[in-house]
Amino acid sequence: MNQTPDHELIERCLAGRQDAFGQLVERYQSRLFHSLVHLLGSTEDAQDAAQNAFVQAFEKLSTFRGQSQFYSWLFRIAYNLAVSEKRKARLMEVSLDGRREASGLEPSDVNPSTEPSYAMDVADRQRVVQQALSELTAEFRTALVLKEIDGMSYEEIAEVLVIPLGTVRSRIHRARLELRDKLSALLRSDVL
Question: pTM above the 0.70 mark?
Fold first, then answer.
């Protein structure tokens, strides 16, 4: 089944066919939501940011110039909204347990025939990775999440974050180094 290209859906929407925008929402809502959950640490915040981003994208669709991918443009809107909201609220960092409770994401054992301890090991590793990831500065965490979790290219990340390509490479490199160091420290402390 051939998917209608984004630019055609955008043209249809600008011509008054709002159902075309609905197709864009269906196409990108899951991807945007999952990326935002990793950035914001909360399913509620991610849902709010995604919903607000789609509303704003619809309202400003005529300003989309097509110089980037629609998703990159949409993500930038969501990212800016989330940053603005956090700035307004001056949210305190949430503990790892609080983030897990708020996000509703629990590790699951995809293979029921594995040993019972396997699920606990996976949960422990995910907890440690989430904790280490949450300790990264926002600029490093954002770049790393966009690259490793959302699968964006360096060029797309530069476009979304409006920073030079070299800065993207530097942030991802430094984020990986910091994450490695934090994981090592956390794993050492868990063993002791």
Answer: no
